[in-house]
What does this fold into?
Amino acid sequence: MNATTQIELIQPDDWHLHLRDGPQLAAVVGSSARIFARAIVMPNLRPPVTTTDQALAYRERILAALPAGSLFQPLMTLYLTDQTSPAEIERAKASGAVFACKLYPAGATTHADQGVTDIWRLQPVLEAMRALGMPLLIHGEVVDPRVDIFDREAVFIEQVLRPLIDRLPGLRIVLEHITTAEAANLVRAGPETLAATITPHHLLYNRNALLAGGIRPHLYCLPVLKHERHRLALLEAATSGDPRFFLGTDSAPHPLRAKESACGCAGIFNAHAALEVYAELFEQAGALDRLEGFASRHGPDFYGLPRNPGRVRLFQDPWTVTLSYAFGDDRLIPFRAGELIRWRAELVQSDTHDLP
Ligand code: DOR
Ligand code: ZN
It folds into this structure.
């Protein structure tokens, strides 16, 4: 049988994206807008996006930074803190521009220092979210320094996530950027209100890529890459056709100087090649026919948003990833820098829905 050399998909969305701000935003937003129709934009700026007014202002900055003519729609999120009130959730929902709230356990990752210290104290906020159908997006790692970094997601699932699902049935939850078999199993067996995003890097690499034969700071992210057995479980979940797994790149650019450092920060920039890398992975798994569900249908269905009217074409035309991009006053090293990627994506038809 001949290999498939071209497919067309409903235009995809990115359900987990870091766009940063200022000159960094201007440097990266076009990479996402090139292919994706919409993206759930993470609120971990400095200071974090904790109010609806801040989210609306950030949305305007994103729109202003888009390439001319782009129809890309940023879907905004709020950063939950110990001070978030149910009234703020109501304002967020009423704005029509905020589509979810992000839970960072305090200190779990980049710019998470103002995150939540005790999730149970947020119960009224979570109840307001449940009542409004506002999804809770979770960075699912415990921050207890006694817990091994490779175990932090699995421990979070047992200590926090299972009790949360039991206490707040009906709350829509996305476990973001899952990295373990435990997370994939939890979602598969969980209620239909529980979903997960999966990144290209966690599908492509295990921890050897980060640490064997030399440390590779540009493959350092959080949650950290795991054992091969977990990568295989993620690949199985992503390509299974289960509608609770969908595309979220977690593209998270950092300046070269902050990555190549004695204490390098977490985050991988992959927006320039995300759909193409997913296509390679689905092709290798013999599941190209399931890419559209993962990339373009499961996400909007979970969020209760219309699927995109636009379409993208993916075709085999190998290209080499740029070695670095300009990024504010520094450089940005992209995922797969200097490597060949087999698939190329282009928009065949772009169109948008008015958001509800
Ligand atoms: O690797 C990561 N980078 N993980 C996160 O959770 C945050 C992100 C960032 O903002 O850089
Ligand atoms: Zn993220």
User: Anything to note?
Assistant: The first strand starts at residue 6 and ends at 10. The chain has one domain: 12-304. Residues 12-304 form a domain with the TIM Barrel fold (CATH 3.20.20.140). The longest helix spans residues 152-167.
